[in-house]
Please model this.
Amino acid sequence: MQSTLIVASLMICFLGVTSAASMPEYIQVCHRNDPELSKCLKSSVHNLRPYLAKGIKELNVPPLEPLYIGDLSILDGSAGITVRAKKLSVLGASNFEITKLRASTQNRRFDFELILPHLQGEGMYEINGNILALPIKGNGPFTGNFTNFVAYVRVQYDIKKSNDLDYLHVKEFSLKIRTGKGNLKLENLFNGDKVLGDVINDTINQNFEVFTNEVIAPIARALEAKFLVITTKILENFTYNELFPV
Model:
């Protein structure tokens, strides 16, 4: 989950103003006609990871550590269960590894796959209904550890003119997540009944992939919206020619 600011990072890596002295030292420039553009971008984004972890103030990029998602309605009761998360935050998002990347300036599109080796999540939860054939009810703090989650991202963009200058505009942003391994701990289930709480937590963790597959789609949509706002904010600061030098 995360895949966060990764698209913004890809866009940043294209920065190539004519004066090299004006470029931040942490940006490795990739040129649009580079025959190994995808390879260059992958290296550039990986080089940015420690800076993304702390945030890049001059580019209005907030820190990835922690990645704050906030409040989220995960399941609305239509499937027989209501799940809400509050004050949700995630640690470990900056340790992503891009495994596949395809960049096409001709088609104005990026497609990439990345793996998140280890994430830690925490926040508050509310849950009520039935899952895995068991009744479940409670509210309180939760913690989670997630390993080897995979994100697939597609970005389609076009060029728009403003004040006689061309700017990149994100036309389509799609994010899908494939769950991996992990474990969750929901505290205060059934008003603190330890026996029932342990049964539910054990059942969830024994069927972790099934459980997370049921709740991951709304999380992915929330991340899409969050990352689109961040990416757009960055792109507004640079013209097309600055972002895609010849």
